[in-house]
User: Fold these one by one.
Assistant:
Number 1:
Amino acid sequence: MKKNILIIISVILFISCEKEIDINLNKSNPRFVIEGNISNMAGECYVKITKTINFDEVIPNPSVSGAFVTITNNTTNQTDTINETISGLYINNSLTGIEGHKYTMNIKVNGETFIASSIMPKMVNLDSIQQMESSSGGGHGGPMGGGISSNSIIRITPKYTDPENYANYFQFVVTRNDTLQNDVFIQSDFGFNGLVSDRPLRVKANKKDMVKVDMQCIDEAVYNYFFGLSENINQSSATPANPVSNISNNALGYFKAHTTSTKTIIIK
Amino acid sequence: MRNTIFILLLFFNYSLFAQSFNISGYISDKKSGETLIGATVVNKANKQIGVSANTYGYYSLNLPKGNYELLFTYIGYQDQSIIVNLTESKKLNVIMSENSLQLNEVVISASRENNRITQSQMGVEKLNVITISKLPVLFGEKDVLKTLQLLPGVKAAGEGQSGFTVRGGSIDQNLILLDDAPVYNASHLLGFFSTFNSDAIKDVTLYKGTAPAQFGGRISSVVDIKMNDGNNQTYGANGSIGLISSKLNIEGPIQKGKSSFLISGRRTYADLFLKLSDQFKDNQLYFYDLNTKFNYRFSDKDQIFVSGYFGRDVLGLNNRFAIDWGNSTATIRYNHLFNDKLFSNTSLIYSNYDYNINLTNNANPFSILSRVRDWNAKQEFQYFANNNNEWKIGFNVIYHTVIPGKITDTSSTENLSDIRDGLESALYISNERQVLKNLKINYGLRLSNFIVLGGSNYYELDKLNNIIDTINQTSAVKNYINYEPRFALNYIIDNSNSLKLSYSRNTQNLHLINNSVTTSPTDKWVMNTNIIKPEIGDQISLGYFRNLKENMYEFSVETYYKWMQNQIDYKDAADERNRVIETQLLYGNGRAYGFEFLLKKNKGKFTGWISYTLSRTEKQIDGINKNEWYVARQDRTHDISIVAMYDISKRMNVSAIWVYQTGNAVTFPSGKYEIAGQTTWLYTERNGYRMPDYHRLDLGLTYKLKEKKHFNSELSVGLYNAYGRENAYLISFEQSESNPNKTVAVQTSLFRWVPSISWNFKF
């Protein structure tokens, strides 16, 4: 929003220009980056371990092999091992979580231990998804261009009923024609408690694309992590920072126990 | 309280024993009847004996029985001497004429010529409207706050911004008063214009060091802005037509010499250009403001002033999203003279800042309202015990209400966050006196109190900022009491040299929480709560002041050290929209120190100044930067301003401004990684990098057009950023277009070669 306002103002006041510049950024020591997931659906349990690189190096950052990874259900005290399938990626296809239970991830690698816990919230169903009639420009001639053309931004509304209690958090994972979309979509019930939510997601898609939306219920720490992640990626804060992780020992990343409810739509 | 009354009585008694008479009255301008703030009166035979007029133009001079020649002086005005035979106390209202002989000469400091030497306060800057009107500014819109930024110790918050920081403080730590009413958001159009229409302004005083005890509530500085009273002699109008805005100011007497009114309005019309562009024709962006004032003198002893300000910004995007915001203030002031030594002022003040957001295109249209509102009462007694001894005693009570966000849709209303009320009050006493022939002191004490009123939810948090309990009670939740001692000492070496030392403590009960680069209408004001404590700032400063060549040149060096407690900042990766803002905040300490240098040429065809500041500002907040000290965002090592004005002829003058600043401290990534498929930045420290150095040259020219009877006008042309420096406004990091796996830094710059033209008229 703020950036849009800035663009409009600088258009009115004639002037703004952008150029690439050289900046001498410091080197940094490599740190562990961990992405851990467990859901109430089978085939969604995985852990990915990598290390950070310097600013002038090339993505992807290197993966970390040889870790010993377990996930414990703290309610039933059952521990499962997650095995490495390809370098840096650890998967357990048979492990499914139970809503309302707390899970703890434990990783031992290169003599270091990382621990994180996450609570899988009670499931909320995604009732429907709906494509809004207009693209982002608000009809024709808007700032982002108009109509549904190649790679236009389409508003897709996930409809669900927020539970009566306060502090529910949701994340939406969007897949377009079987390709995972990277944008971070999160919603909380702040200001919308107990209501039917129809806040749209702005999704890149074309006509006839198949768009799949996974609605995940997540806990507050995970919501805060992804909020920080989107601020980090968009560089929208004046005091940029690493997203606050729920993993111990100074690791970057997150451990997320979530429910999944899915709907699919074909773009018109 | 009983002690205060006792002290008050003591000085009434004291005056009874004095073997002398009083001569007192108002000093005003002949043409407009405007009172002259700070005009001086001295005994011509012994110039050591003298006083200056207060903010209402009132003076009171104490002399033994006898014959005197009194000399009245005010910068830019003809000296006036009046012979009096003093056998009893007397009223003497004085009317002064502008100095027509030197009409072409600019005088850039207000009031007495060697005021900077003789006044006890230090770190005080005065601006008069003539200086403001001669200098080039962005878009040609004259602006008091932007002119203040050219003085040492005062820094712009960002490119083209009217927001400023003083001696390492943050933007919200400046108390900005318009006719005594605090203005919560002093900027229009996201900071590119200030809310003050220079046509309606009479006097601007900035206290960056020790402000006298009658001011309080912010820990960094006070900007005291007084509006014109309105011409009580003849009707007049003036105004200007410019590229993006026009102004009109009308004033005149209601009853000649007794009462007057003033109405001053301004409107921007940049949004008309939007209509021309197909892409933006559905957008709106403009602001307007209106200053009004009315005053009436009942008698020699009673006078009433009513003044008001109303301003609004409107921004609309594609009929889908609209936001409007603005301040409104109203002040009623009543002056009463109990006797010629005791001056009283009673003020009732209303101040309101709010914004409304309307979202109309969703299935459920809704609006959000946010507001800060004050009801404020002030009483001050000014007692002129004798020429070298002046007291001020007063109190101030403010009832604050903050609505952080109220969301309304077709069916319901919900508060995004708790509505809170607070009662702020203060009791103060200050005294200025000459203790020795060469030593002047001003000392005082302000006792401030803030009551966090009950009636809404407050929270208990654990060490990790998680809510563990909710407090809801009707009685007060918390009571904060602070003592704020102040003193300023001036050792006058001789008529043109002085040495000053001062110390002050200030507290602040309302805090602006801002997490973006620019000032935004939606920045959050929060009050003290059971968790958020009053900010406390202590400052000590030392300065040497020297005037040269009969006050033609002013030179000063000042140095300061400031330490601040209970400073507030967002925690890392904070969510500004959180329902309980306290869970997103961290608290710690700040320190700032620096050295300021100013050389000013006040008279002649060529005038101007050079100012240089060397400074450092740091913060230490547990939870940020591994709990270590880090430089604050507003920290700038070097800051230089050079201002030059030259009168080529009676009709034409040119001006130039050059500024140079070390870039702001900023946080850049030192590494990266991929997570959830996105390139993510790795940060290792807060504010560890610097933006590139900032510098800029502005040029201006004013040409007076041929005068006609009752009508004169001038043309003013300006060029902002004359050599087109691409100053970095923002630096962001993106994927390279040629290789998506590589990362590049992209700099956004805003204004290069911005021309402006405006036509100013007066009749």
Number 2:
Amino acid sequence: MTSAMYNNNQLRLWSLKNTSHANRLFGYMALKVCTAKCHGSNFSAMLVFLDNLLLSVRYFGHPQARVRGFLLLPFFFLTFVSLNVDASVSIPSHSQNETPRVAAIDWTLVETLMSLGIVPVAAAQIRDYQAWVVEPSLPEQVVDIGLRAQPNRELAASLNLDLVLTSPLYGAIEPTLSQIASVQTLTTYNPENDFWQNLVETTRRVGELTNHSAEAEAVIEHHRRQIDQMKEKIATDTPPLLVVQFIDDRHVRAYGKGSLYDMVINRLGLQNAWKGETNMWGYTTVGIEELITEGYLVIVDPVPMSAEGVFDNNRLWQALPAVRHDRVLSLPAVWSFGALPSAVRFADELYQALTDQHATELGLKNL
Amino acid sequence: MISLHRRASPAYICLPLVIICVVITFNLLKQTLPDVSQGAFDFSVGLSGPEAKAMSTAVFQFSVLPRMTIALLVGAALGLAGVLMQQVLRNPIASPTTLGVASGAQLGLLLATLFAPRLLAFGSEWVALAGGVISLLIVFSLSWHRRLAPVAVVLAGLVVNLYIGALSTVLILFHQEEFRGLMIWAAGSLAQNSWSDTLHLLPRLVVVAILAGLMARPLGLLELDESSASSLGISVRKLRLMVLGLSVFITASAVSLVGIVGFVGLAAPVIVKLMGARTLAQRLLWAPVFGGLLLLTTDLFLLQYSAQLPSMVPTGAMTGLLGAPLLLWLIPRLSLKSTAPSTSKTTLQTARKPTSRMFLWLLVLLTTASILALFVTQSIGGWVFNGTGQWESIVTWRIPRVLAAAGAGVLLALAGATIQRMTGNPMASPEVLGISSGTAIGLILTIYSSANVTAPLLILAGATSAVITLAVLILLNRRTGFQSERLLLTGIAIAALFEPLRSIFLANGDPRIQQVIAWMSGSTYYVDSSTGLSALIFAVMMVALIPLVTRWLDLLPLGRNVALGLGLSVDRVRLILLALVAILTAFATLIVGPLSFAGLLAPHVARMLGFSKALPHLVGSAIVGALLMISADWLGRQVLFPQEIPAGLVAALLGGAYFMWGLRRY
């Protein structure tokens, strides 16, 4: 409100100082807009603005006044813009128990929404979501609102949203998005806390915001139980795991503390073999000579085309202990920055792969 | 060129590098071979004795050794390519990176990854070669009219680098996940896991080196001027083409294997020349040796200290970072043949007489573009043409962007027009002067180092780095009296510092990439109404101030002596104008990022339309700049709806075709 008042005072000052006809007219118009804005909504300000527009058209009709009328042009921009200063937005309120019309920018949150059975009205970069997150897949009717870092706000505004969910990664757009709908920024990647707990908190919070608290608790419980069941069945003497994703034929991402994969591995009662430094999102980029582990080497798809088949004849690769002992597990793609469903999917794939591997190893021993 | 010590030999600088390499290698071996030290395998629980030995032997044999070899080979290849390019073009600052060959190769690979991945399986070397050749051809066609004068070639190289950078940026913006691998490549990682790369590069390098050796004698004669060389019976043109082809080929071979390695190609020939390799034969021998050692030393240092670094720093980006200060140091020591007189005349030729009608037309166009940008858009149900019912979104979303685009366009156009008149160089622009890049460096570092990025912090960081860049420009050019060509070269060096920083940021696959590159490619997305309004007000104020500088800008293109004779204290005026340009650029960069080409294009268009005297030229440029940015912003919002292409990038694409076509006439 302060900036609106400042604007108001400034305009009054202008209109008092200048006595020329044109400027007095402008001062009158600007004052009217500002007053309307302070006391009413954007809509009433808009009406006043239209009124001003009519006035000035009449004014432009007089040929002698046309020159002075040109002076008005820059001030028109001011009037336009003063409409927007300190815009207080009335958020369309939805009743207490209904599902709000929600959009999600961050894919982790899209996934969380889907897991609660809520189909978002809009999401960002849907084509890439389908390619990289894959599951749960988004139905046709979800509107694509563009890049995650720059969602199309005009489009979002036309969707009549109640709620926009985003993560601190896209924090820069929060102020402007909040003119469209109420924006909630949820932090999932916080290296200081336990990652499982972070995911649970995010799911719970999404549940609260969308009036789906009961479903959220059920989903959390369901996923917890699934992982616990797998944990009981996995042999406790399973050697440590080193989870990597290939970037090209020379580099891999190794996932350590603070990543989704690491959390799942710990949750299953297993050990992550990567003890090196990781970044804020729990991974680091290394060459394949660093992939030395006595345990299993877990490769998560997709393997880029440049790295396909390169390692069949690679002597360094052959020398890796995991390769030498036939302890390489290949898992289908799981989004590495995913939410609870991704976590459980990874746990499940890992469990399957370990079980198969175990059977093979037993078979070899029995021979 | 000057040489530091008359009796010096490049061996004096190569020997210490060899010693450093041996020391670090020994140190690394101690870490790698467990026989010497116990602590290296602390994370491989229970790796038994013989197995550990086998593994560490494999690591040494198939990772460490090939990596050291490839560092030597790539450095040698780039050093050789640099010598050849510098000799053929008689240009002391020609190199694979400054001529745009490396970035052309990168764009080729990006496009192939996206649209024809099978092509890469066939041979990424050829894709890289095609990209490199195409961008080199563009550079030549841009500088042909100035008979490939050194500064013209390097400026054209910079402009092509900037364009290709813009194009790559938009590809990365929309395909962040697919390009994970290519980003590491672009930063030049030397990591190896077999001998295949070495076996690939070695024969090519040997062949090229032999061919270069055979051509050394005729090449040496090129140091004489062209007519005397041809009178000695050399087909100058054929020789040049062949040697250039060789150097581009060996660059593409090296680059397609390990990625873009900055500045070794420039630094190696220049340093061995400074160290006393006076003849071409000496340089052909020493530059590859020194280049290889330089790259190996850098790589070994990075290997040694990689554990202490917060993020992965690929070697190629590191040499780029080291090379930029070298270029800055080198610039005051270069002797440049001045080509100013011919340009200053041609650049000011008027195509036709301008009239006030032209201004009117421009204003009408500007108004039309603004109305289009405000009222016409796509929505979920298709195109929307009339304003009813969309007042809210016009006021909230479109006006700030149109205001900001117009304001930034005006500011950049004014800066560009000023600097082009001041330096008498049609390629000069705020982007070229490095102020945009300097501001961007500050902003990238701020975003990277602080967890909570706020707008005031960004403004502060941007303004500070713009001032620092300006101070560097002034300090390095004060002694030479702000001579235009040196000024532009300083700008190139600063811009060259920006590229590796960006590469490092991208190579780490930081999820914040998208936001950073969206901003870097000149988006009005983050502008709010107060920013937009202040941009326009500032722009209008600056336009109002034009009459104060028109006399200077009318006199400066006539050349230093004429201007002095007419009572202009040239150095002081240049300083003031430089400060003005810096302020304009910094402000515009804060709004739309460093990569909009309005500053380069708008003054051109204005001059093509016939505005030749300073006052109409500046005002005309301002209008064209606003027009360009408003249309670019609108197009960017509509073309890939609902995704938005940043305005600066669209402006670059729009202007690119015009630029290639129009510039050859100057």
